């Protein structure tokens, strides 16, 4: 059974958040607020947060910045996962993955289906590993960010979550 083993120590993880949007700014970025609040409430560190336009070069530059930043363990992006012409986040980031995490999308859609029904198919959320940085590409709505965090990420980035979690494998990501 999945559980939190209170006898184990909690190890905080460092996050960066990139919001992909042509219309949001620091005052209207509810998805970024949602992620920042949940990251901090869980006892983790937010290293930095930014907003970039729905533009392949801007998205790629933000991802490259996060991956190059030794203080960042996890990058979460929000926005640009739909099907409109400006929705290019997964198309930009997936080719950068060293390893794709197919299970994240499957679990996210299962969770999301319980909340928004079949509308979940309108998201192309994805995740993977670039070097030693975990990257999660979420839809742009605050609800989707909440659902991904509360139902998946909060457990996988809790070093006490059993039977396994990402924190315990982080030291081994450089193995060859």
From TrEMBL:
Question: What SMART domains does its record include?
Answer: MoCF_biosynth (SM00852)
Q: Kindly indicate whether the keyword DNA damage belongs to this entry.
A: no
Q: What is an annotated GO biological process for this record, any one?
A: Mo-molybdopterin cofactor biosynthetic process
Domain MoaB/Mog, chain residue ranges per copy: 16-160
Q: Mind telling me which InterPro entries this protein's record contains?
A: MoaB, MoaB/Mog-like_dom_sf, MoaB/Mog_dom, MoaB_proteobac
Its UniProt pathway annotation is: Cofactor biosynthesis; molybdopterin biosynthesis
The source's domain of life comes to Bacteria
Q: Which GO terms describe its cellular component?
A: cytosol
Give a yes or no for keyword Oxidoreductase in this entry.
no
Which keywords does this chain's UniProt record carry?
Molybdenum cofactor biosynthesis
Family as reported in the entry's similarity comment: Belongs to the MoaB/Mog family.
What does this gene product do? Answer: May be involved in the biosynthesis of molybdopterin.
Question: NCBIfam families annotated for this entry?
Answer: moaB_proteo, molyb_syn
Q: What is this protein called?
A: Molybdenum cofactor biosynthesis protein B
């Amino acid at each position: 059974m999945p559980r939190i083993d209170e006898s184990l120590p909690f190890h905080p993880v460092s996050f960066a958040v990139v919001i992909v949007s042509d219309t949001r700014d620091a005052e209207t970025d509810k998805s970024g607020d949602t992620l920042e609040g949940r990251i901090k409430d869980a006892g983790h560190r937010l290293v930095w947060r930014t907003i970039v336009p729905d533009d392949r070069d801007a998205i790629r530059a933000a991802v490259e910045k996060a991956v190059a930043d030794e203080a960042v363990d996890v990058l979460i992006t929000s926005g640009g996962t739909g099907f409109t012409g400006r929705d290019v986040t997964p198309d930009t980031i997936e080719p950068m993955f060293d390893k794709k995490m197919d299970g994240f999308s499957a679990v996210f859609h299962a969770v999301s289906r319980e909340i928004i029904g079949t509308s979940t198919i309108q998201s192309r959320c994805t995740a993977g590993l670039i070097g030693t940085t975990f990257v999660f590409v979420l839809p742009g709505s605050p609800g989707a960010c909440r659902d991904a965090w509360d139902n998946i990420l909060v457990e996988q980035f809790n070093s006490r979550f059993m039977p396994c979690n990402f924190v315990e494998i982080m030291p081994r990501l450089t193995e060859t």
